[in-house]
Write a structure and sequence with these properties.
about 100 residues, alpha+beta, Alpha-Beta Plaits, 4-stranded antiparallel beta sheet, 4 strands, globular
Length: about 100
């Protein structure tokens, strides 16, 4: 797997609590079968570019069904041939502490 993203998406027109919409996106991510890790402000997803961007697209299309305004951030780190970076990057830093 070669790309690791941090991804956040939520509507800005649905009030203060948007967790039901975040849950819809996390469900799509989970069902993709790609490795992921849910965080308090974003979700990390790891896989091949087309797979990962396909998940982002599905999340956007799902929220667009009910939301008139959507905020999204995507940070990506491509590294050819790298695997298990979600856990590996954290482990590497923790070993140096």
């Amino acid at each position: 797997m070669s790309v690791l993203i941090h991804f956040s998406i939520f509507p800005t027109d649905k009030g203060t609590s948007v967790s039901p919409y975040v849950a819809k996106s996390v469900r799509i991510i989970r069902e993709s079968g790609l490795p992921y890790k849910l965080g308090p402000m974003s979700t990390a997803v790891e896989g091949e570019w087309e797979e990962v961007m396909g998940v982002v697209d599905r999340c956007f299309k799902e929220l667009r069904k009910e939301c008139g305004r959507i905020y999204m951030t995507v940070q990506a780190d491509y590294r050819e041939g790298a695997v298990n970076r979600i856990e590996g990057k954290i482990k590497s830093v923790e070993e140096k502490l």
